[in-house]
Write a structure and sequence with these properties.
Largest sheet: 5 strands, parallel
CATH architecture of the largest domain: 3-Layer(aba) Sandwich
Distance between the termini: 28 Å
Number of domains: 2
Shape: globular
Length: about 230
């Protein structure tokens, strides 16, 4: 089973790109969706978050804007939240991969927004980044409710820069020229990796940093990169 890690900075079209993989028949683990499950009414993380951040629960679910206001720009508080959520998301991800292996799937995608920030590439056989020019990214993000230029730039500063992600990823999926253009690149990527033998699952001992995980090193699959 070959594991492809998919990532992209805010406003880069990663979520739409993830849907394209599903549309083309590739199962996708969505880390954001897993977090939503944990935070909704009855979610496993609700009681732990209420204990760590009193007052952020509304109608039995975590009020995401309230929680965001508590942790945004506060490194210590963010680490407390991550200590609760990351192990649970990791458990869901491992269950997804184990099920995929039982079903003898040849290719799966891990959709992880903070793939490089959290060394998630160590759990993948290759990585892909959804990317668009800065002006398009900015326009998309500022069209969101309650978003300001200041907030947008603050979020960008907390993420690995897009230029670095493009260097570190094995595949580049352009999202700035329309959905058809992106879909064509997604299909080409699937053709490029389908049939390859993956080595990331099942995990063998302690994960080691992949050869291309340093931005100054050439990606191991550089000859197969899909560009604009």
């Amino acid at each position: 089973m070959f594991i492809l890690g998919l990532t992209g900075s805010i406003g880069m079209g990663k979520s739409e790109t993830s849907k394209m993989f599903r549309r083309l028949g590739v199962p996708v683990f969505d880390a954001d969706a897993a977090v939503h499950e944990l935070l909704k009414k009855g979610g496993r993380a609700v009681r732990l978050i209420e204990a760590a951040f009193p007052g952020v629960i509304k109608d039995g679910a975590v009020n995401r804007p309230a929680l965001g206001a508590r942790v945004f720009g506060k490194r210590g508080e963010l680490r407390r939240l991550e200590a609760i959520l990351h192990p649970m998301v990791g458990q869901a991800q491992r269950a997804f991969l184990a099920d995929a292996q039982r079903r003898r799937l040849s290719l799966v995608v891990l959709d992880i927004p903070l793939l490089f920030e959290g060394r998630g590439e160590d759990r993948c056989d290759a990585t892909a980044v959804a990317s668009a020019p800065y002006l398009i990214q900015r326009q998309r993000v500022l069209a969101r409710p309650n978003m300001t230029p200041e907030k947008f730039e603050n979020i960008r500063r907390q993420q690995v820069p897009d230029t670095v992600k493009r260097q570190r990823a094995d595949f580049l999926l352009p999202t700035g020229l329309g959905r058809r253009h992106t879909l064509r690149h997604v299909a080409q990527l699937i053709s490029a990796v389908r049939g390859r033998i993956g080595q990331a699952w099942p995990p063998k001992g302690r994960p080691q940093r992949r050869p291309n995980s340093h931005p100054s090193r050439r990606p191991v699959h550089a000859r197969n990169r899909i560009r604009h």
